[in-house]
């Protein structure tokens, strides 16, 4: 009876399980990108260039750099390449 019930419920449950899988994959990809050390270093370099151009003041640079350094530390803790 369990197999029959599963077969009858597939049309109802399949879209939900598929949507959950897609959501999990998107979250995993976003997290990998967020904690990518190369990307974080590029963002720090972009901040430095913004300060050099005068687009960003030192206080803002320090605050944003602190956030990026925390992300970089978390990436290292997670074992990112």
From TrEMBL:
UniProt-recorded name of the protein: Gas vesicle protein
Pfam families: GvpG (PF05120)
Annotated InterPro entries: GvpG
């Amino acid at each position: 009876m369990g197999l029959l019930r599963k077969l009858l419920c597939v049309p109802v449950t399949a879209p939900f399980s598929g949507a959950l899988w897609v959501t999990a994959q998107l979250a995993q990809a976003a997290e990998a990108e967020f904690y990518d050390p190369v990307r974080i270093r590029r963002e720090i370099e972009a901040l430095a260039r913004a300060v050099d151009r005068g687009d960003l003041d030192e206080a803002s640079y320090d605050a944003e750099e602190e956030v990026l350094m925390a992300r970089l530390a978390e990436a290292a803790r997670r074992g990112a390449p």
